[in-house]
Automatic annotation (TrEMBL), chains A, B:
Signal peptide: none annotated. Specifically methylates the N3 position of the uracil ring of uridine 1498 (m3U1498) in 16S rRNA. Acts on the fully assembled 30S ribosomal subunit. Residues 69-230 form the Ribosomal RNA small subunit methyltransferase E methyltransferase domain. Belongs to the RNA methyltransferase RsmE family. CDD domains: RsmE-like (cd18084). This is Ribosomal RNA small subunit methyltransferase E. Its main location: cytoplasm. It catalyses: uridine(1498) in 16S rRNA + S-adenosyl-L-methionine = N(3)-methyluridine(1498) in 16S rRNA + S-adenosyl-L-homocysteine + H(+). Its EC number is 2.1.1.193. It comes from the Bacteria. GO terms for molecular function: rRNA (uridine-N3-)-methyltransferase activity.
Length: 239, 239
């Protein structure tokens, strides 16, 4: 059954892109069944009661609420300089079931190009599409935090990890450090890495250094693999 | 130190794109030191003896050979219909250190668009760039296998896994099945998945069904995450 998105399920119609997709692409019609999620864990089954290109009315026949998983993953990433790399990172982390994505401006972030490479409207559209594609019901919250100290002050996840490139005193892999069933925040550095002051400040704010493996990963790859490693820690816990 | 690629280290000069990059982009000159790998595990340190736009001569001062890792990962993937998704899959698996990537044509593969969406020359360039970027010395072998039965007949890795979408009898996660320090082949289905005949044939050829997690992943995401899970199994083994 096709999955649609509507921010508020109390409003019983789709408009805009969702209505167009229903009418023009899928050519659904009166009496057809659809699923709708609000991206906050609620899923409704509904029957179409009126369909045109601009507005699709539905009647909800069943509705369930999903629980957010106990190990909700918050990713905090210093954005790469290429829009498409930030975009695929958002798509892939959404597929994996990330709950929150924060783009954090650090010392080595190019501020001049930030608005172009982190286009929140576009990233939200990509996340929405990936959430529906992978049949999930939580839409990640995506935001920009333009102050590194403000980011550190505001983090409240009980588990906090920071990954950066180092050749000496390589820390233990994230998978071996992360505890299952607890919220996690993982902080990933930019191209050119964090400054030593930033690493010091993050460690003081409770971020534990972690490794992400023996090969040198690009920022966006590191972010996706870190997100994946946290999910795999839950898989291991179930053994 | 900058890393270059030369298929044969017995030939002591770079040509083509590598020479251009050295001369035009990095503006290296006589006496500068570089590193060169043959993508087969050999790494040489060398000094430039002559530099121009078309040819860069070097003198090797030191050379070492890396051992291929015991758990070499062979990924066999039914290609997606979008060239850029196949391309990023190759880039990311190369960053993670995959040894071999085979694009396997299955029943649900679009044969008509195959040569466009799996452009080996372009994919090899992407893998080369990713190998250098992530400072590795093994270039994955990338190929197309246009017969599914021929693929099954030729596989010789001791560990073989197949991932496909199923809602009943969900198998154990790859991470919980894979054995460390042994060669692995993981087979990933296309959009629209394998046919039931193909799954049956693969299982008969020794492929064990595995899960890749609770969310539904796109083909290219599944491939990269499977590759990552095999690497993480080695990390766990070291605990």
């Amino acid at each position: 059954m096709h999955l649609f998105f509507s921010e508020d399920l109390a409003i019983s119609y789709l408009t805009g892109e969702e209505a167009r997709h229903c009418y023009k692409v899928l050519r659904l019609t009166l009496g057809d069944q659809i699923q709708i999620t609000d991206g906050k864990g609620r899923l409704a089954k509904a029957v179409l009661t009126q369909v045109d290109a601009n507005r699709v009315d539905f009647h909800i026949v069943q509705s369930i609420s999903m629980e957010q998983s106990a190990y909700a993953v918050h990713m905090a990433i210093c954005p790469t300089r290429k829009a498409e790399r930030n975009e695929w990172m958002v798509e892939k982390m959404t597929e994996l079931g990330v709950l929150q994505i924060q783009f954090v401006v650090s010392e080595h972030t190019h501020r001049e190009t930030l608005n172009r490479v982190v286009n929140l409207e576009r990233l939200n559209r990509i996340a929405l599409s990936a959430m529906k594609q992978s049949q999930q019901y939580f839409l990640p919250k995506i935001s920009i935090q333009s102050s590194f100290p403000a980011f550190l002050a505001q983090v409240d996840q009980p588990q906090r990890y920071i990954a950066y490139v180092t050749d000496h005193n390589v820390p233990e892999h994230l998978l071996n450090q992360v505890q299952a069933a607890q919220e996690v925040c993982v902080l990933i550095g930019p191209e050119g890495d964090f400054s030593s002051t930033e690493i010091k400040e993050a460690v003081e704010a409770g971020f534990k250094p972690v490794s992400l493996g023996s090969t040198r990963l690009r920022t966006e790859t590191a972010a996706v693999m870190a997100c994946h490693a946290v999910h795999l820690a839950q898989v291991l816990d179930k053994r």
